[in-house]
Design a protein that fits this description.
Layout: H1 13-25, H2 31-37, H3 45-56, H4 67-78, H5 83-86, H6 97-111, E1 129-132, E2 138-140
Antiparallel strand pairs: 1-2
Helix pairs in contact: 1-3
Length: 145
Amino acid sequence: MTRPPKTRRRWTREEDDALKYFKTEYPNLPWGKIIEQAKLQDRDEKSCSRRWNDHLRPDINKSEFSPQEDELIIHLKSLGVSWASMRKEHLLERRPSSDIKNRWHNHLKKRTVTVSDPRRPLPNHVQQPLMNDQTGLDIFFDYRR
């Protein structure tokens, strides 16, 4: 027997305000306790966590993506890095992983014909020689700078 689909509803301003208040006042309080205290009984821990991390966190960068961020996303995607791991990169650390994923699917994927093409030069801000072999060729791979 299949379960009926769970209906999702939009977050209200009151719910957002309550979540912001309890998460900023009690940052180490578990999500379950925040839900109890904020009286968000019809919200689960996962939805509260996502709402906080993707929309309400005070340090989120919601500005336009820079060309450097775009190039970094393209490069990391070519390496198979997950969206959540990309968020930990220096240039992308204040971007929600959902924004990075949406940027890729809505803008960058169309722009890149072959992301994994090893002949594609890396942008200057992600190039760093890892080693110099006997022939004198530098291998550029490290994107953490």
